[in-house]
Amino acid sequence: MNALQFETPGKVNIIKVDVPSIKPNEVLLKVHYIGICGTDLSTFRGLNPLVQYPVIPGHEISAEIVEVGSQVPAHITTGQLATANPYTHCGKCPSCKRRRYNACQYNETMGVQRGGAMQEYIILPWEKLLINEKLNKEQLALVEPLSVGFHAVARGTVTDIDTVLVIGCGMIGAGAIIRAALRGARVIAVDLDDHKLAIAKKLGAKHTINAGKDDLPECLRTITAGQGPDVVIEAVGSPATYVTAIEQVAFTGRVVYIGYAKNEVAFSTKLFVQKELDIRGSRNALPEDFVAVMNYMESGKLPLEDLITSKLAPAAVGQAMQDWSARPGEVIKLFVDFSK
């Protein structure tokens, strides 16, 4: 079967691999769509320190069950559509003991620390499946990235009395906007791209700010009557936005970081103490975040056509990655189509 491989930074190949055989507790899945995420872009650029090349990327999965092992529960059958939780957990580290499996010390995410899903067939333990026959193939491939944003909102303990600033309106930021709005918060979305900001409005943002054109601090002073946002969710991963989150959040506010800054960040640590801030990381997602995303999608409110930038044949991925690397602001979500 065909698989897509990042051989070295900047080099993408289509390779031949064997169709895997299942164990009694596993299922064989025919892949339909795999989303390409910001982590995959970092891997393509050679900026992901967790990856060893060559690697098959991909962990945003839409697939169909084609074979089940002898020990798989009877409610899991061939023909069902599914997505999957692509993370592992050890069950023994401090995170796992606290039931925060998403942040397992020894986690291995598909397509990062271990082989990914960008191939025609994949095998998974049945426990990792998320079956939902109310959602279509495109929706299922968006569950994982949106769940990361949903989890960040949970980390920020967002409620209906909060004003939430989301910095970055890609897929992860989109998830944060949706979840914060669902919780009744007033959401302010910030990005450099007007098209993404227009989509953020559709997703539930009350206010939008183009940080490349507008005076962000002044806009926030006006919107929040000088108070600042109660919660800032950083979904970009740049030193500038890391600092902006600390500077703009309200006194005694909460800052949630999702994105990895690739370079060191210099903070004025006085603000940590002076504002008595809660500064929190947010990694991956928990099973309940996946369920919350699917429940939201079942409502039919997700503007699917706005979020999918394009669908690609595997052979077109190399050029698409080069284009995305050159103009990262123009892409929300790329799908690789393995269904044909």
What order do the helices and strands come in, and which of them pair?
Layout: E1 2-8, E2 11-16, E3 26-36, H1 38-45, E4 60-68, E5 81-84, H2 94-97, E6 121-125, E7 129-131, H3 137-155, E8 163-167, H4 171-182, E9 186-191, H5 194-203, E10 207-210, H6 216-223, E11 231-234, H7 239-248, E12 254-257, H8 270-274, E13 278-281, H9 287-298, H10 304-307, E14 310-312, H11 317-326, E15 334-337
Parallel strand pairs: 8-9, 8-11, 9-10, 11-12, 12-13, 14-15
Antiparallel strand pairs: 1-2, 3-4, 3-6, 3-15, 4-5, 5-7
Notes on the structure:
By secondary structure, the chain is an alpha/beta fold. It has 2 domains: about 1-145 and about 285-335, Medium-chain alcohol dehydrogenases, catalytic domain (Quinone Oxidoreductase, Chain A, domain 1, Alpha-Beta Complex), CATH 3.90.180.10; about 155-280, NAD(P)-binding Rossmann-like Domain (Rossmann fold, 3-Layer(aba) Sandwich). The chain contains 11 helices and 15 strands. It has helices spanning about 40-45, 95, 135-155, 170-180, 195-205, 215-225, 240-250, 270-275, 285-300, 305, 315-325, and strands at about 1-10, 10-15, 25-35, 60-70, 80-85, 120-125, 130, 165, 185-190, 205-210, 230-235, 255, 280, 310, 335. Strands 3, 4, 5, 6, 7, 14 and 15 form a 7-stranded mixed β-sheet that branches. It has a 6-stranded parallel β-sheet with strand order 10-9-8-11-12-13, sandwiched between helices. Helix 3 packs across helix 9 (about 285-300). Keywords: Oxidoreductase. This is Zinc-binding alcohol dehydrogenase family protein. InterPro entries: ADH-like_C, ADH-like_N, GroES-like_sf, NAD(P)-bd_dom_sf, Zn_alcohol_dh.
